[in-house]
Amino acid sequence: MNKPVLVVLAAGLGTRYGGKAGLKQIDPVGPGGEIIVDYSIFDAVRAGFQKVVFVIKREMEESFRASIGQRVSGQIETAYAFQEIDDLPAGYAVPAGRVKPWGTAHAVLAARHVVTEPFAVIGADDFFGFGTFRALHDYLADVDPDSEDFAMAGFTIENTVTRYGYVARGVCTAENGYLRGVTERTHITLAANGQAQYSLDGGATNVPIPRGSIVSMNTWAFTPRMFRELEAGFPTAIDGMADPMKDEYYLPSAVDALIQEGRASVKILETKERWYGVTWQEDKPFVVQAIADMVARGDYPKKLW
């Protein structure tokens, strides 16, 4: 049986939530001062994960270790990987003036030096629920570590949309329980009738997303072979960037390319869990109340650690 590792992507600056002055990853939301990732680690430990790797930017290290590492390291083996903007394929250089990280696929690639076991990937500023971690762990515990048999926790779109602003989601197509394609939608909102919708023109016009559609929340289960695939695909992604200052190497797009090329299979682990996240400042009170309700029901202790 494998010993799955949890990789937590936490290098984003949270620009929509205050930028450098207010990192949403370390903003308390729990009654005991917990941040969202505390609940993820708590659920991951309950599900059987024994090691967590945080992917962060080096300039975040001191505050991140102080706010998270000291608490978490007493509960689970903890390591760090750093997403460096100059961590590029041979022959490539950072375009003059670029300061933005290279995206979620690049963030996962940053963990290649410290992860050797099958691993799950989540975001630091998203609440996924215990069932999600249990599904990811149980899949990874039995997967062939040398295979390209991957998996994804699939959420229904209605359970993943904020009441405020917009979100980006990978809208999935599936066949016989396996992922067949991911289309990245970067401007998803809720219509007045509660149905999710996406826009390609900044909200001027909207297209409904069918109720019950499965979306990717970047909650993945990979074997170490994924690192090789990401390394191989990074040059192509860079070459195809229309805007070298802002474009990114998206993880859902990287996975989709592997599926279309027949180089990987991705099983969908459907979850009925509800996502909570602080995408916009207005989200925070709603998340705080949701967690307070879960604590009141006994889903979580009042003080996690």
The total count of strands amounts to 13
Q: How far apart are the first and last residues' alpha carbons, in Å?
A: 28 Å
Total tally of structural domains: 1
What's the average pLDDT? Answer: 92
In angstroms, what is the radius of gyration? Answer: 18 Å
The major beta sheet can be summarized as: 11 strands, mixed
CATH topology: Spore Coat Polysaccharide Biosynthesis Protein SpsA, Chain A
- The CATH class, by name, is Alpha Beta
The run of helices and strands is EHEHEHEEHEEEEEEHHEEH
Protein described:
- This protein is of the alpha/beta class and 305 residues long.
- The chain contains seven helices and 13 strands.
- The strands form two sheets. Strands 1, 2, 3, 4, 6, 7, 8, 9, 10, 11 and 12 form an eleven-stranded mixed beta sheet that branches. A two-stranded antiparallel sheet has the order 5-13.
- Helix 1 (36-47) packs across helix 4.
- The radius of gyration is 18 Å and the shape is globular.
- The chain starts with a strand and ends in an 8-residue tail after the last helix.
Descriptive keywords:
single chain; 305 residues; alpha/beta; Spore Coat Polysaccharide Biosynthesis Protein SpsA, Chain A; 11-stranded mixed beta sheet; two-stranded antiparallel sheet; 7 helices; globular
